[in-house]
Design a protein that fits this description.
mainly beta; five-stranded antiparallel sheet; 45 strands
Amino acid sequence: MRSGNWVMLAAAVLGACSSADAMAPSRSSAGPASGGAFAGNVAPSGGGSGGSAAVVPPEQEEDQSYRAPVVSGRWVWTANPDTGKIAVVDAKSFTVRLADAGLGPTFLTALPTAQDTSKALVINVGSHDATLLSAQATGAVTSVGPLPLQPDANAWTVSKTGKYAIAWMDSHALTPDPTQGYQDISVVDLRADPPVATRLSVGFLPSRIFIDDAERRAFVVASSGISVIDLGADPAPRVLREWPVSTDLREDVQTRDVSVLPDGSYALVRHEGSAVITLVSLADGTMSPVTLPGPVTDLDLVSDAQSALAVVRSAAAPLPAPDAGQAGASNGEAGAGGASGAPAEASGGDAGAANQLAPTLGSMLVILPIPGIFSEPSSFVSVSLAEVFGLVNIAPRGTTALLYSNAIASSHVTLLETGAGDGYLTHRTVDVRGTVHDVFPSPDGAYAIASLVAKDGGKPGFAAIPVSRVLPSRVQTTDAPVFAVAQSDGATPRAIVTVSDGVATFAAYVVRMPELVIDSVKLPSKPLPGATGLVPEAGMAYIAQAHPQGRITFINLESGVPRTITGFEIAAQVTDGN
């Protein structure tokens, strides 16, 4: 898909949390750990130094998808499983065209394509196959298929330029039979005319699939390990091997967090309740441990995989005393002038600090250099801060780590710079005046949207946070919880935030940056999960909604004017979104 300087992200914000990303609490003494190590996940009870400690609940990390919704070019694709029809909606002219697919077309993915064209793949759950759909500015929508798939496929993974697509079963939201492993996948070679699908068997219960940037290898993360697939094998793709990612056969694999580097060289594995991150060579299967000062609650890759960020959450740690220069920070900003917790360069951890340290509540961010950490496991840098956080998010093209917690009622988001330069490891903490649930960075990292949950009878809402500039955050209360977020960057960055109570209150908010001006639009019906996004080539946001004949509301990102299309299969009428 041609996206210029626009990138989209969408995520259900207040839905069910993935147990694979949550950390179970552990107990420890309330005092500081010896040797600078973090003692565990505890929080104060509110009393003095002699008070008891309460266990902090797990962090709840939401699945966040940085891949575009079903948008290709200026067109939005939507499927109707009941009629077998696929509708493609032009976000500029609001015209609708229909195409036939197989039986029960349900799971769509957009494909990269040239300007003024659009392509998508759909899984037809009733006929266990796929259909390739193509559209141009005018003319009929063309389809190629059926492409035979395994039963139960419900997800796609597409390679960087669209040479390959893999159909697989994502069992995150299911409670499968203990003997049901969903081990079949289908690799679709989209270079062939017509495309060719190859069935393969991989590890038990796949949870993520990565394709390297060179589009030569695919890596299937499963409960049994990582299956390595040679996509270009002759005469067809084949499974080369499976590498284990842990030596503990009793580990709860549902809570394991695995990331693969874009070049396919290594995998990084976070284990629940463990201070060890396992590095797995995907060339020879060698496992190397990196031991951090305490249990790791989150692990994220920085843009271009220059480093990995690990969070060690604790409420009992030796931290630098607050710098006197931080007092009196305005507009809810704390320590905006620089790094208040001077980082300690570690040789296997926080070895001696230069300054006198005071026992203070706080947490630690550990930066693992790539590729250095693979040859020298103690070459990480750690930064201790006087904040309790357990989660980290970072933009696809950003270098500022967004640190926060939703395991406790916290209104703070800490912004810490991880990129080389004068600002390296400086930080500031923003008070968003509400209880943080999740934080979504813009694609370039210049802004972030924090979803806020209702507390003590108040309203939910969200905060728009300037990240690259020290400006006040904009806080917006809403009549329903935040449901989804999508953002763009470029000369005129925008965000679209939808809210829904699932019953009667539905709305969308357009956030204009850098002005941080917010306008709301009522939605005529309930937004669908994963169906809030942006149409780059049309300058539109879109929200697909529940309706028997199909409904999408488009919102002009400049004027804020909504247009709703209802009834894709009955000559699609255009109405006022209000």
